[in-house]
Amino acid sequence: MKILPLSVPLFVILLSACTLGPDYIQPDIADTAAVRYQDGWQPMPAQSWKASGSWWRAFDDDTLSALVERSTRANQTLAQAEARFRAAEAQWRLSRGGLSPELEATLGATRSGGSGEIERSASEQYDARLQFSWAPDLWGRVRRGIEADEAGLQASAADLAAARLAIQVAVAGAYVNVRALDRQQEILNETMAAYDRSATLTRNQYEAGIVSCADVIQAETQRQSLRTEMYDLQAARAREQNALAALLGIAPAELSLEQQGERLPAVPVLPQSLPAVLIARRPDVVAAERQVVAANARIGVAQTAWLPDLSLDLWGGVQSGSFSGLFDAPARVWSVGPSLAQTLFDGGRRAATRDMAIAQYDEQAAFYRQTVLDSLRELEDALATLQILAEKTEQQDALLQLALENERVITNRYRAGQVSFLEVATAQNTTLSTRRVAVDIHAERLAATLQLAAIIGGGWDLDDPVIQSVTGE
């Protein structure tokens, strides 16, 4: 009989160590160890997505770096993600509170009396009570809930990192577009100067009777067409700059980028050690995997609904007819005892809740697998694009040299009166088109590089010695 009082709390503690539900096993995913377009690349040890460095510094552009860093402080989409993370952290703390007992204090006052057939003089009653209650986590319901909310918190942290990376990539992309348009504008300015010289030459030759009036009209038409095209570039640049301002969290009127048509940001040298396994550090992949953990834990929460709930309550207090004598009153009351609650019939609601939790787990697992597949596809696309564009750049450079030489030869022949201005105009337009395509290809390479940065989770840590050896820093 003496052992019985000690055995009851011991039994409760042992039951509290039970945790229902399946333990988490990471779902099988596609093999990320091999990539078709990574010729000559060697894998490096996988790193956490939290270790992402300032990848944008690889583009060697101070203005770009300043804009990216500014966006992480003022972008409103990022502010929303940060608020969601704080909410997830609060939810996790709320779940952890379910393991702790509750202590409540109450102080009350009542006045009662009667009239009519039941005459009763008015009386006052004051009471103070202190109540202790605890619901042991017999079947692991609270612990599974904490596990689910902790995984949700980790997913929210990954979502925050994904939002930050998306903003950084978007800012860099808008900046590249602005600089590409600046370079296009510079090319048009240089071409306009050449057209002006051609128009002057044509008019001089016309006045000398060497060419016809049609050549003069052709030269003026070509120059006016180019002048009109410049307005399209100006409008496009204004739109890109406004989009960049929105990403920075400021009004368009507050941002003004000076034109820099001399060059575009350099295409960074890709680290030879970039592996496909870096997909594992992508924030969206991490978030998807953590959501699977949360869904798995909720299955355990649903399974505990079939088992009884135990709660232990203890309270004590005092009562008195006057407030001044409340704590000196001889009338003291108390209560102590356990209670056990069990749902006997619920019309299939518990089974439906369990089946829903299992279905949601299957959904999250499938979403995780698809996220990995999409990441692999995006990686292959970016690597293939970079590889092909690098080769295309070489061919475009060779084409540009031919176009320049052809323009020089045709212009000399025109000066000698051997050809009409139509051939000169054709040669000049070919050179202009070739130069502009070269700028477009360079911008496409930068865009593909930015896409690759997003695909691998912004994982170009410039402090990594392997990357330093490749980039020459």
From TrEMBL:
Where located? Cell outer membrane
This protein's GO cellular component annotations are:
cell outer membrane
Gene3D superfamilies cross-referenced by the UniProt entry = Outer membrane efflux proteins (OEP)
Keywords on record = Cell outer membrane, Coiled coil, Lipoprotein, Membrane, Palmitate, Signal, Transmembrane, Transmembrane beta strand
Q: Which family is this sequence assigned to?
A: Belongs to the outer membrane factor (OMF) (TC 1.B.17) family.
**What protein is this chain from?**
Efflux transporter, outer membrane factor (OMF) lipoprotein, NodT family
- State if Lipid biosynthesis is listed as a keyword: no
The residues forming a coiled coil are 64-91
Q: What is its main location?
A: membrane
Q: Which SUPFAM superfamilies match?
A: Outer membrane efflux proteins (OEP)
In the UniProt record, the signal sequence range is 1-21
**Provenance organism:** Halopseudomonas litoralis
Could you tell me which Pfam families the record lists for this protein? OEP
Q: Which GO terms describe its molecular function?
A: efflux transmembrane transporter activity
Q: Which InterPro entries match?
A: MdtP/NodT-like, OMP_efflux
Q: How does the record say this protein sits in the membrane?
A: Lipid-anchor
